[in-house]
Amino acid sequence: MSQANLEVRAISGHAGSVPGAGLKREFEVCKLIDTTTCIGCKACEVACLEWNGYSFSETVFNNSYQTMPNTEWNYWNLIRFNEHEDKDHGMMLLMRKDQCMHCQEPGCLEACPADGAIVQYVNGIVDFQQENCIGCGYCMSGCPFNIPKFSPESRKVFKCTLCVDRVSAGLEPACIKSCPTGCLHFGTKEDMRFLAEKRAKQLRDISGFQDAGVYDPSGVAGTHVIYVLHDAKNPERYGGLPANPTIPWTVKLWKHPLKWLGNLAIVGGVLGVAIHYLRFGPKVVEGDDEKLTPTPKPGQEPGPGGKR
Amino acid sequence: MSESHIVSKGRVLRYSFHERFIHWMAGLSYIYLLLTGLAFWSPWLFWLAVLFGGGTIARELHPWIGLIFVVAVFLMYRMWAVQMHENAVDKQWWDSIGHYIRNEDKEVPTAGRFNGGQKLLFWGFFWCGILLFLSGLVLWFPHWIPWNLRFLRLLAVIIHPAAALITIGLFIIHVYMGTLMERGAFGSVIRGDVSAEWAKRYHGIWYDQVTRENSPRK
């Protein structure tokens, strides 16, 4: 997607500091999804396709209300549908709008080796820049939410941009604009967090959902898409929302300790052999007629094989 | 090995054409894999990808060249595995590694066709080659790995660079010894032959074998 005119916070695979970082402050933006008032109309799915210019995909029926099993490279917004038999509230139809969570500490960006292929703006949007993407798919391994999807045709990875083009022009994301029930809200992170807590309290105090709460996972330092859930203790019920998402430990191990250890080992190895050559020199076989061996000058002793 | 090992007076054939070809098949593909791999390893080395047509092309070709490397390692295994088994001579060789490093070669017991160090290099590349191949397959097609088998991708992400680092260590030592330190070794893998003196000094057991094999045909 196009490089939006926004302040940049982090760049994937980038050597050195972020150019122009800290020039100006910006609000952190946030999408609030209230799963308790979602009716599963899928207007947001349609609006997402329309705004981003993708054609409608074939739906997959597997005894569920869900359009297809997972988001796709050209289908970024999916209502996940689960039936849940609750002992207090009877049969519940859980609808969760699934899309990129725009993590404050994005695993995709951490794992990406291509300079500038993933950019995180100061406002919290994590945006893929396909012109810099090399199609390695490491972002797919770094993401704890199964969001980045590989396009076999273009051999690049795509995901929800949080409508960065609309947001940078002062508009709300397309999905928010289309929502008929008002279960989707968009604003600053602070305001959305306040609104979400207020709604969760209402659910607890008035609607009898004692475990209602806000999903804004700390394992990725919070997200720029937050949910109100009837049961915040069991987020997995909502189409496999992870209870404690983090950047996978193997990705962290690879990008931090292994990287430093490896760099030290490579530099140490090259320095080591160079110092060995200076100290001990080549092995020389006496009486050897190898052209590569230094020929002793007439009158001198043959080159020693030992210390020099 | 039916051909005569005596190339000319004072020269012994060390590596046949077949062996040299497979060595360079592995060597050249490894150098490509190393340089493009380093580009993906660190942002500070991403410029290396530019030398090979940019990040996208490097990402496309790296697995294919990897296949060539894997085939070469397999052929090496078929060709050399029997000769690479550790034996008592290698143990003695390792015991005097300090002398070997300090070029006190008279203190080092002579070896068979391959010394302990060469055997370590061989098995290091062989086992790391298998790890790199398996993890590389996963990294080649990450979009084919379903979400519930995600642990495969997460393992591959750490195994591939870790195994690569071990081979880089072996590679640095191998290239240094083959070019600068062990004079005559580089020629042996280009032209195939070494001097009889060189063979006697470093691979005396092997030298005795090949000269005995050839002596009746004199």
What's the quick description here?
The complex is a heterodimer of chains A (308) and B (218). Chain A is an alpha+beta fold and 308 residues long. Chain A has helices at residues 43-52, 107-111, 138-142, 164-167, 174-178, 189-205, 249-255, 257-280; strands at 8-11, 29-34, 78-86, 90-98, 118-121, 126-128, 149-151, 156-158, 184-188, 213-215, 225-229.
Describe the 3D structure.
The complex is a heterodimer of chains A (308) and B (218). With 308 residues, chain A is of the alpha+beta class. Chain A has a single domain (8-252), classed as Alpha-Beta Plaits (2-Layer Sandwich). Helices cover 25% and strands 18% of the residues of chain A. Chain A contains eight helices and eleven strands. In chain A, the strands form four sheets. Chain A has a four-stranded mixed β-sheet. Chain A has a three-stranded antiparallel β-sheet with strand order 1-5-6, with no helix packed on it. In chain A, strands 3-4 form a two-stranded antiparallel ribbon. Chain B is mostly helical and 218 residues long. Chain B has a single domain, classed as Up-down Bundle (Fumarate Reductase Cytochrome B subunit). Chain B is built from ten helices and three strands. Chain B is elongated. The model of chain B has no long low-confidence stretch (mean pLDDT 93). The chains are: A alpha+beta (308), B mainly alpha (218). Chains A and B meet through helix 3, helix 7 and helix 8 of A and helix 1, helix 3, helix 7 and helix 9 of B.
Number of extended strands of chain A: 11
The SSE order of chain A reads EEHEEHEEHEEHHEHEEHH
Name given to the CATH architecture of chain B: Up-down Bundle
Assign the CATH topology of chain B.
Answer: Fumarate Reductase Cytochrome B subunit
**Euclidean distance between termini CA atoms of chain A:** 62 Å
What would you call the shape of chain A?
elongated
Share in helix of chain A: 25-40%
Per CATH, the class of chain A reads Alpha Beta
CATH homologous superfamily descriptor of chain B: Transmembrane di-heme cytochromes, Chain C
Poorly predicted segments of chain B: none
- The low-pLDDT segments of chain A are 290-297, 299-308
As laid out across the biggest beta sheet of chain B, the strand order is 1-2-3
Globally, the shape of chain B reads elongated
Q: Please give the radius of gyration of chain A in angstroms.
A: 28 Å
Q: How would a crystallographer describe the biggest sheet of chain B?
A: 3 strands, antiparallel
CATH fold field value of chain A = Alpha-Beta Plaits
Helix content of chain B: 55-70%
- Oligomeric state of the chains present here: heterodimer
Sheet with most strands of chain A? 4 strands, mixed
